[in-house]
Amino acid sequence: MKKAAGFFKNWRMCIPFLFLYLEIVFHLYMRLDMAYAPVFLLLAGAAGMFCAGILFFLPELPAKIVGAVITAAASLLFVIECISRDILQQYFQIFSAVETAAGNKLTDYASTVVQSVRENAGGVFLLFVLPLIIYAVWVKVAGSKGGRQNEKIQEDCAQNKEEQQNRTKEGKQRRKEAVVNGLLSLATAVLVHGAALAVIFFAPWQGDFTPEMLYCTDTNTDDQVEQLGVIAMLRLDVRNQIFGVPEGSHAQIDEEAAAAVTGEEQEIEAEEEKEIVYPYNEMDIDFDALKASASSSGSAWLSEYFASLIPTRQNEYTGMFEGYNVIFITAEGFSGYMINPELTPTLYKLSHEGVVFNNFYSTLHFTSTSGGEFQNLTGLYPKAGFPVSMSETGKQGTYLPFTLANQLNRLGYTSIGYHFNQNMYGRELSHPNLGYEWRQFTECASPLTAETNEYGNAYWPQSDDYMISQTFDEYKDLQPFNIYYLTISGHLPYSFDGSQMSQRNRELVEALPYSEKTKAYIAANLELEKGLTRLVDDLEEAGIADKTLIVMAPDHIPYSDLDVLEELAGRSFNAESLENLDEKTADVDVYRNTCILWSASMDEPVTVDKPCSQVDILPTVSNLLGLQYDSRMMAGTDVLSSADPIVIFFSNSWLTEKGMYNRYTGTFEPAEGVVMSEEEKNAYVENIKYIVSSRLSLGQLIIENDYYRQALE
């Protein structure tokens, strides 16, 4: 008993205590669900006991140094996760993200990081400063007696042989006790971890995401942090990096569920009334043969899943813009709530006189701008974790036959992409793989030249208007052309000091009845308005406006600035924090946005009332251009067909024409006018939940298995 008491009083036991402290404080500070405390505390305690066990095998002074390093590193990681969640609205697998972070110089976020650290000064103190103080005090108090004894032993000279023998004996005894304590600590770690696994795998957890599921995946880090804890999430990331992700069975193919969302029965009814039966948007692919010859479970599942789907049909809009030039714009941090007929007349015109999307959502998915681009350009969802999906397609040379550039290049189009910024997210590889001759400031064959001030310093951010003015003449005579613009003017931070584009347009917004931050946001985006105005004028002057299709979609909303969105929308989105977008509490209308699909050749607008989102753009545009593609092999849906798109949110909540499912409460709220029995509602929810889970997996599995190459080359 005395030895056990000494073991727990040893200063090394500070490490398990600090791990528990960090998890508890982090969960409370970030307002995470404490219902999972039995899981994340057991996992943190096991990790802490393991680290303490290692320290017992080290000499006293090195052990204290290593203990200080462990404390500082763990505390720093918790602070990093706090800042990442604040700025990027998601937690990060730090070890998997190292390569991405190294490739992205992060200068775009430097001032934002500093601001976030200031705003979270209390969290930084609790998660970094205080743990270091606790460690220093604990080690000093708990180790003072032993330290004084050791110093005395070292200072005393051996007076005789007997004293020297006693000293050697005492040293051996201390080493033996340290080894025993180390083994005891490691054994305790194993036992506590076993208890954690028992709670994870055998407790009756409820909900769409459970600790058992999250323990066996390398995605959904936000849920991993909440349920398993930061330490476990990072440890699992290391495990997955070394040993790979545990291979679990893919969802069982539910043919009824897979077909349900296509609305095929409604399509047939509608077409029988018109006496027109449109052909399917599909390709001749033998999915059964692909499944039989699959080299992985992922490829086999994809083949079985695609085979179970009914393709969407072509429709009266098929080929409406066949042969047209295409200009596709991904708009940085854009929200349609800022569109105003007086202040932004071109944005208003293009969004109200083309295809009008009344219920378009730009849902936030992993990796911010890169994740938004991935949805816009591939019609798939990015992996909810590392590696970054878009970057990985470039590194692996993944075959992507359905991107607009790759589809149109086969028809003789000239495809060029522009981004007035340095290389980020590995676009020097990914965007040429998408089919574009890629141009940016660095790491490309034809670097762009930044706009500079009178002193030769580049503006930050750059001007979207300047980007269009510098590039239009390069492609206007290369018809048919397919141009991609990734804008930058609307990049955070939104302040007249932090954004030179905001400063440039300050006079235009001074009289607006908004806060300085909201006015700065609008001012920055006026560069996009000016650029679009210039683009439409240039197209008309060149005589090709009526043979050019303009498509524009956001990469994401200004997700760290919900106060801006609330001001612009004139309503509350019920967010607990205006700096952190938490889908548990926020109204999903925070994601409601504007998608532009316009040509001067359109005599009247086409209205789309269906809820839809970014992944639906590629299949919709592909159908409008009369391209050959397989509608089963994307996560999105042609919104002009009679099929029903699904708007999928990062949390796995979802929205359809029939209603809204809240993943956190597990409840489904039918849309106005939709009547369902409880049995019908339950069946519908289970079907769509299966579809949602499957669609979110497609992008990851297609990239990992280079599946399009297997199916189409």
Widest sheet, order of strands: 5-4-6-1-7-9
Count the DSSP helices. 28
Number of strands: 15
Share in β-strands: 5-15%
- The class by helix and strand makeup works out as alpha/beta
User: What is the 3D shape?
Assistant: globular
What percent of the residues sit in helical stretches (DSSP H or I)?
A: 40-55%
Describe it:
With 713 residues, the chain is of the alpha/beta class. α2 packs antiparallel against α7 (121-155) and α15 (297-308) crosses α27 (678-705). The longest helix is centred in the first third of the chain and has 42 residues, at 161-202. The chain is globular, with a radius of gyration of 29 Å.
How would you summarize what this structure contains?
This protein has 713 residues and is of the alpha/beta class. It has 28 helices and 15 strands. A hairpin with a 5-residue loop joins β12 and β13.
Helix/strand layout:
Elements: H1 2-9, H2 14-29, H3 37-56, H4 60-88, H5 94-103, H6 110-119, H7 121-155, H8 161-202, H9 211-215, H10 221-228, H11 230-243, H12 255-260, H13 264-274, H14 287-292, H15 297-308, E1 325-331, H16 345-352, E2 355-357, E3 360-361, H17 368-378, H18 389-396, H19 404-409, E4 414-419, H20 427-434, E5 437-439, H21 464-475, E6 481-486, H22 500-504, H23 506-509, H24 516-541, E7 548-554, H25 562-569, E8 592-593, E9 596-598, E10 606-608, E11 612-613, H26 617-624, E12 647-648, E13 654-656, E14 659-662, E15 667-670, H27 678-705, H28 707-712
Parallel strand pairs: 1-6, 1-7, 2-10, 3-11, 4-5, 4-6
Antiparallel strand pairs: 3-8, 7-9, 12-13, 13-14, 14-15
Helix pairs in contact: 2-3, 2-4, 2-7, 3-4, 3-8, 3-10, 4-7, 10-11, 15-27, 18-20, 21-24
